[in-house]
Amino acid sequence: MSTPMQTEAPRPAQNSPLDLAAKFPGAVRPDERPGYSGWIVEKDHLRAVATFLRDELGYDLLSSVTGVDYLPEGKMEVVYQVYKTTGGPGVFFKVQVPRVDPIEVPSVIDIWPGADFQEREIWDLYGIRFNGHPDLRRILTWEGFEGHPMRKDWQEAYYEEEAKPYKSRWPEGHHVSAEEKSLYKDNVRYPEKFDPEKWTPTDPEEALYASLKKYTSTDESGMETERIVVNMGPQHPSTHGVFRAVVVLDGETVVSLKPVMGYLHRNHEKIGERNTFLQNMPYTDRLDYFNSMSNNWGYSLAVEKLMGIQVAERAEYLRVIMAELTRIQNHLIWIGMMLNDLGTYFTPALYAFEERELILDIFEAASGSRMMCNYHRFGGVVRDVPPEAFEKLKGLVYDRLPAKIEEFERYLTENEILVARLKGIGYLSAEDAIAYSMTGPMLRASGVPYDIRRAEPYGIYDRFDFDVVTRPEGDMYARYLVRVEEMRQSLRILEQAIRDIPEGPVLSGKPAYQVRVPPGEAYGRIEAPKGELGFYVISTGKPNPWRYHVRAPSFINLTALEKMCVGNKIADFVAILGAVDIVLGELDR
Amino acid sequence: MYGKGILKGLGVTLKRFVATYIEDIVWWGRRYYKPEGIARRSSKDTRGIFTIQYPEEKLPVPEEFRYVPFLVYDEGEGGKKEIRCTSCGICSKVCPPQCIWIVRTVDPATGKPVPAPAEFYIDADICMNCGFCAEYCPFDAIKMDHDYEIASYGRNVFDLDRLLKPASYYASIRPLNAAREDEARRAKEAAKAAAKAEAR
């Protein structure tokens, strides 16, 4: 299992005949650290290489940008992962800069606009400045935050040790509550000389408002019109949690919009670096808490790539079954909540919840929990589905769900009010959708047939017969139709998986709580119901990951929110946001 | 015809409304507060409203359902509690939020560790119910509970007294698992005994 062959395992960049080093001599060199792949690009040539990759080679989809702090080497690294929307493996490239402030890297926002939020996130968490980024503000932490929390030398309020398990728990584990250790008897730590009573958030808020377009405008007759700034959220029923959007309005029309997020930020990635590899599994449940089964899969995919282990055959099928059930219940909830946003208060939402409850019964019987499933283990799943739950699953897939999806269509699809609210609103062209790194149903509703299950199949998706659903319209009605049809395709996959599932063990190898993960990097990405969910994991051979990054579809799909909203009415903003399908647990991480 | 879509949709709502009453009549006297009624309402054939009227009714939890862990003890002679835990510390090491605190017993005469916990705490407010402790315990000593009604006004730091539950309780909530583990333990002991006999 712990094979020393991991450096020779097929890696995307080594598979392709691409030789960037020959094209850019002196500026690009292959990444030759053991277990790593891709290219290291000199900072000054980053934009040239990026443009070349996009324009000449067709790597049009920027999947993920993230930072890594190599504290012992005194380096900061920015990692880019780009893919082609026509499918196939991607290219990794990295920029390394000395770890001395100010750390600066050129921005690629005009090459791939989808880098917008991600570069802001890196600035926020790592303190790497992106030259040329028009609006480089903190994005996840609050404005008064001191330091950059993902840096390896930054310590949280209740810092105990660099890595779990903590020594204070055993064998002398006399219980102490965390808040007892704090001066404030609460879970807070303030910068020195900081008085929370006296602080007012003027400056950062001004920066936020300045990032919006100017408030006044003058029409042809010379009359000055003052525009209105409206704060939607963070406490607003339409924002699906604690999400805030600052909207500039001209009458009822949206002129400019900036999302403000991070109210649910808990530094998931820092927690992930303190955890052991296995301990991260239940934490991934809490990202997109509707789809814990998919989240588990993304993470185990990345770690299994690093470990170079096979997944048990039956477990592969169980993973597909659970992931597709997850997709169905997610899309059902989406339809229900979307209709809530449109004002159909709770009847469709509860119809959707009914079917979801039946699906969750199966999750509960198999994993022990309805939502926080924690079902995957490296090399398989934790246990088999009990026979009675499997019978119920068959009943749902063969009898109930097809009829219910039919009923939903009868109930909603032709409804004139729904059509009037959705058709032609929130338009996003295929070019923009790709440029803004949209993935999942959002991208497919703009007419791009990009589905990772097809574009770069993981698990056993290459064995199933299903269609990638697309609609050319790019409006909200298309997003609705894509999701309805995707549920049918999921049922098709489920039928095949139930038919073909073999008997056998559900875990390759023995259950182990300490796994040996060889050094290297891996990017595991799956087609989650909301879009591309990626986990970028770096191991140094220790029990804890050196870097654990989540490429969250909810977060990155919001990059195009302003683009979709401008020119529409404020009432449609609620619907457009709803159509993106966000979950704050994943968005804020 | 404009409005046809709305009418079709209203038809669906009406059908579902009526279905609730049809089910009430067909399952007269058995639909609510009866195990068979609850089973029917959570089956694939359920129709109409199928809300479970908690707390009057409760959805039966499946065997694998997991909630804050407890410690299993075997009932020895004279009601003596034979705690299975050897305070090896695996559960506290594997715990993702690090909510298990164990003090190992030390023999006061020799100063050597004794395989039993002196103190055992689970901070139930921090526990994320992942089930790793039960999964990786080599002694079947810590198991996930089914009792999910533990809301309280204060903090829930469970000590040894609160955590200990008899093996018979464990067998009652997880009959299949308990039987399988007992079987495995018996087989192991038999193998040990056989090896001993052979060595002799």
Task: Explain briefly what this protein structure is.
The complex is a heterodimer of chains A (589) and B (200). Chain A is α+β, with helices and mostly antiparallel strands.
What does this molecule look like?
The complex is a heterodimer of chains A (589) and B (200). Chain A has helices at residues 12-15, 20-23, 46-55, 115-126, 202-211, 268-274, 280-285, 292-307, 313-342, 347-367, 387-413, 416-422, 430-435, 441-444, 452-455, 476-500, 553-557, 561-565, 570-580, 584-588; strands at residues 28-30, 39-41, 61-70, 75-83, 91-98, 103-106, 128-131, 216-218, 224-226, 228-232, 235-236, 241-242, 244-250, 253-260, 376-377, 380-381, 520-528, 531-539, 545-551. Chain A is an alpha+beta fold. Chain A folds into 3 domains: 4-131, Beta Polymerase, domain 2; 210-260, no CATH class; 268-551, Orthogonal Bundle (Cytochrome-c3 Hydrogenase, chain B). Chain A has a 5-stranded mixed β-sheet with strand order 1-2-5-4-3. In chain A, strand 6 (103-106), helix 4 and strand 7 (128-131) form a beta-alpha-beta unit. The longest helix of chain A is centred in the middle third of the chain and has 30 residues, at 313-342. The two termini of chain A are 32 Å apart. The model of chain A is unreliable at 1-16 (pLDDT under 50). Chain B is an alpha+beta fold and 200 residues long. The mean pLDDT of chain B is 89. Chain B starts with a helix and ends with a helix. Chain B is built from 7 helices and 7 strands; from the N terminus they run H-H-E-E-H-E-E-H-E-E-H-E-H-H. Chains A and B meet through helix 7, helix 10, helix 11 and helix 12 of A and helix 1, helix 3, strand 3, strand 4 and helix 4 of B.
